[in-house]
Amino acid sequence: MVNHVWGLLTHPNTEFKEIQRENESVSHLYTHHVLLMAAIPVICAFIGTTQLGWLSGDGHAIQLDMFTALYTAVAFYLLMLAGVAVMGKVIHWMARRYESRPSLHRCMVFAGYVATPMFLSGLVALYPVVWLCLFVGVVGLCYSGYLLYLGIPHFLGIDSREGFIFSSSTFAIGILLLELLLGLTVLMWGYGVWLF
């Protein structure tokens, strides 16, 4: 089902060419890739926070009850799915000045595959130590940025110098979007704790 994951991690240039040849639809991407990959950090965080709790440096664990963890997990899952769509729209909007401007659905497919390393970095949430989750999350974010830098020139048919500028702008917007998603999740978790 998630047939491009290994290729994106081991030989991304070749894999991006394969993805481009497939001309995959947004619905196929979501049902066969994004829905599954986005579930990895959600399920891992749910298990980690309900069984072990968030472990801080002083050894104190903040364990979530099942209802609060489920509420937060569902909210974060929906926000991640929306985040991929928003990044696809950002790429489409930023590509408006290029002659080979890809369609919106191709931009969303591209964004979904670029987010793969970030989704995979969520595996560490099974053992939710704050510093470890932060470190692995940054590694996943950096590899997603690397995929963006590699893929944009091929995707838009532009030279690597111009692709670097485009990728840098897109990456910055992606980081802001990620911070917004994390902030919204924390807010919902905080209100969920107080409401229920």
From TrEMBL:
Pfam family, one: Yip1
Source organism of this protein record: Serratia odorifera DSM 4582
Protein name (Swiss-Prot/TrEMBL): Yip1 domain-containing protein
Domain of life: Bacteria
Keywords for the protein's UniProt record, in alphabetical order: Membrane, Transmembrane, Transmembrane helix
Membrane disposition: Multi-pass membrane protein
Transmembrane feature ranges: 29-49, 69-91, 103-123, 129-152, 164-191
UniProt GO cellular component terms: membrane
Principal place of residence: membrane
Domain Yip1 as annotated: residue spans: 6-179
Claim: Nucleotide-binding is one of the keywords in the record: no
InterPro entries (UniProt xref): Yip1_dom (IPR006977)
Protein localization: Membrane
